[in-house]
Design goal:
mainly beta; 0% helix; 120 residues
């Protein structure tokens, strides 16, 4: 069944902003990492930003200073605030959550993706 649901993608002009949201509807005991990846047509899926259980964050060099990842543990949610968007940010953005579900079942789940298009 679908556990991760992304939202917030769309069409935006260069220089604009979007906020992506991802909520995990499953039963989570503990999260080790939550992240956002993106995949442009004809390219591999690359890490955009990640936030670890202790709060440490990691960003791709291309988005540093423009994107901010955050989370809400109570909602099992992760967000990506994207500012100063560029045409090269156009891609399908995927949410990824890793951790343990009820019964300490290890999981590494992906959302279905949300399209972000930056164009004038």
């Amino acid at each position: 069944q679908v556990q991760l649901v992304e939202s917030g993608g769309g069409l935006v002009q260069p220089g604009g902003s979007l906020r992506l949201s991802c909520i995990d509807s499953g039963s989570i005991v503990s999260v080790s990492a939550m992240g956002w990846y993106r995949q442009a047509p004809g390219k591999q899926r690359d890490l955009v930003a990640m936030i670890l259980s202790g709060g440490m964050t990691n960003y791709a060099d291309s988005v540093k200073g423009r994107f901010t990842i955050s989370r809400d543990n109570a909602k099992n949610a992760v967000y990506l605030q994207m500012n100063s968007l560029k045409p090269e940010d156009t891609a399908v953005y995927y949410c990824n959550v890793r951790g343990w579900r009820t019964g300490w079942e290890l999981f590494d789940d992906w959302g279905r993706g949300t399209q972000v298009t930056v164009s004038s």
